[in-house]
Design brief:
Elements: H1 6-15, E1 22-25, E2 32-47, E3 77-80, H2 85-95, H3 102-107, E4 113-115, H4 118-126, E5 131-135, H5 136-144, E6 150-153, E7 161-169, H6 176-191
């Protein structure tokens, strides 16, 4: 088992004996076959007592209370790098598409903190250092094990999704052990 960003996972099929990398994507690979395991929303994470939490509203089509990004003009941001899946989605599908957050584009280079550690970005938001973007499952996992110190919000004009896939070599035989493993993962994803 190896943890890596999506472009390394894709390259592992060509450069190692990897049969079945599982990873999150925001653009579907053209050079591999794949199966979609699940999709989940990228959410905004804030400390549980953040004053803007009271401004969130229920909005049709969103799973979580929705917060207008323009309200966060004075907020510090803890951002993942754009070559990471969540960092790329936060920029391309949330910030760049939400005209009310156009001001934030200029702030991306001067974000309070850039990190490659998703867990750290969530924990810093929990501690009130700033706002972070995270896949909803990452948020719920970290929040559950740290005493539910944060809240998550939907943002943008429509939910920004990340998709988890299992990829394999195009037009190649997928070994039985890999197919069995893939079935176990699909069953797990259905239960969650």
């Amino acid at each position: 088992i190896m943890e890596a960003v999506n472009f390394i996972a894709e390259n592992s099929l060509e450069t190692s004996p990897t049969d079945l990398p599982l990873y999150n994507i925001h653009e579907f690979p053209e050079t591999m076959d794949y199966q979609i395991l699940r999709s989940e929303e990228i959410v905004l994470v804030l400390h549980e007592n953040h004053p803007l939490a009271a401004k969130a509203i229920t909005r049709p089509g969103f799973r979580y209370p929705w917060l207008d990004l323009s309200l966060l003009k004075e907020e510090n941001f803890i951002l993942l790098y754009p070559d990471q899946n969540t960092g790329g989605i936060a920029r391309r599908k949330i910030i760049y598409r939400d005209f009310s957050a156009f001001w934030l584009i200029n702030e991306l280079r001067a974000a309070s903190l850039h990190t490659r550690n998703s867990s750290m970005s969530i924990h810093l938001a929990m501690d009130g250092v700033g706002a972070a973007f995270a896949p909803e499952s990452y948020f719920h996992h970290e929040n559950q094990y740290t005493g539910n110190r944060a809240l998550c919000f939907s943002v943008g004009h429509k939910p920004a999704l990340t998709t988890t896939i299992a990829a394999y070599r195009k037009n190649r035989y997928l070994p039985q052990h890999a197919r069995d493993f893939l079935e176990m993962i699909r069953e797990y994803c259905r239960e969650k």
